[in-house]
Amino acid sequence: MSGGSAGFREAFRSGEIGPHYSGWGHFAFTTLGSLAVIVFAASRVERPTALELALLPVFFLIANLTEYFAHKGPMHHRRPGLGVVFKRHTLQHHAFFTEQMMECDTSRDFKIILFPPVMLAFVVGITVPLGAVFYVLVSPNAGFLFAAVAIGYFLTYEWLHFAYHQPASSWVSRIPGVAALRRHHQAHHDAALMTRWNFNITFPIGDRIFGTSWKEKPTD
């Protein structure tokens, strides 16, 4: 670990992580809260038609591209009213985790990996009006399916991002596919690449569509 990274980690821990913070409690809140919303939305779906089910990959793509543009945009570039997003991601998360030091040390470090708990309420707050559009324009089933997919995608984001920053020897890092996705995200943590490459944290669909999947260091 570089001295700068080590110094930032200690400063962040002492200044940003309160004495009563529980990393596993944070993880449990995000997981159980998201699952509760997903189960509720899925329970409202009644005998979906083939057309309604055909919308599932469309909803998934919408979520993937939302992730892509949110990461490529305000998470890496200052936007009016969203400075806190830029600070937390670019100035803090990328300083805490570098390409050479991707692993957290203790569960207290989960605070710089997971979104703040309030983010779940924010995501639900965005999902509800968008789901209402599909509810009215397509069908009630479509609205609830959209909500289930959107919150499910948010939870998948949190789980995968969490996995990338665990020790490479941990069981979660050995789940099929996680190692490849981790490498995709690790390249993004290279300070020379982070503002131009590998913006998908989950599945690099948006990166493939828009040509921002990094394969080898570009020669300028």
Strand-helix topology:
Elements: H1 3-16, H2 23-43, H3 50-54, H4 56-72, H5 83-96, H6 118-137, H7 140-164, H8 178-188, H9 205-210
Helix pairs in contact: 2-7, 4-7, 6-7, 7-8
Could you characterize what this model shows?
The protein has 220 residues and is mainly alpha-helical. The chain has one domain. It contains 9 helices and no strands. The longest helix has 25 residues. The mean pLDDT is 93.
Tags for this entry?
single chain; 220 residues; mainly alpha
What is the H/E order?
HHHHHHHHH
Number of E-type strands: 0
Helix content: 55-70%
Strand content: under 5%
Sheet with the most strands, sense and barrel status: none
- What integer is the average pLDDT? 93
Termini, distance in Å? Answer: 28 Å
Low-confidence segments: none
Q: Which shape, going by the Cα principal axes?
A: globular
Number of helices: 9
Radius of gyration: 18 Å
User: How many distinct folded domains?
Assistant: 1
Structural class: mainly alpha
Produce a short descriptive summary.
The chain is an all-alpha fold and 220 residues long. It is built from 9 helices and no strands.
